[in-house]
Amino acid sequence: MNNIDTYDFTGKKVIVRVDFNVPLNDHFEITDDTRIRAAIPTIQKIREKGGAVILMSHLGRPKNGPEDKFSLKHLLGDLSEKLGTEVQFADDCIGEQARQKANALKPGEVLLLENLRFYKEETKGDEAFAEKLAALADVYMNDAFGTAHRAHASTAVIAKFFPGDKMFGYVMSNELTSINKVLKEGERPVTAILGGAKVSGKIEIINSLLGKVDNILIGGGMMFTFIKALGGKIGN
Question: What is the pLDDT at residue 188?
Fold first, then answer.
């Protein structure tokens, strides 16, 4: 398996699935940049090793195609500042402009694609859509731990188009190392703390943790599902 530390990125275009699903205020300013900061070491490593970077992410839950409030262009200033280079932007994640800008990328340059979820095909895991994204690059890197539990076009499906040139970024590999440390090598008892709005996306994770941990604490919106299942009263 390829590794970000040993792979030769010289002259390669690397499409990286990042998790830039960050909260914005009414003025489209980032109120918590944790997820962007987490991805910076991965992006800089590729640039230092002679690669060009194409970033793709989702933001929010747009219902019917493009919406300004869910545009990733709002992140450009912050991202450019953190990387110390002017990040380019394609106002669509597929199509002619994305192709042209990706083709023209030089080593060390960074291109941000527009919100993947402006296409329903992303969450449906559509293969043709994933193939269009894959066509922009030579290498695929998954660094979006927050969306890794979903079989979306940009996370699971796209990987098949890069049989020999795919790998994890630092966010992903650090999380996996931490999970292994706790679940395989950790001292007991182990307590898992889970949050999130939707229980549907987490139920598989909960099932897999049941046999591995001693306690599970559930917070966030999904705790209400459990309160109701236990006979409690909840709101709407």
Answer: 86
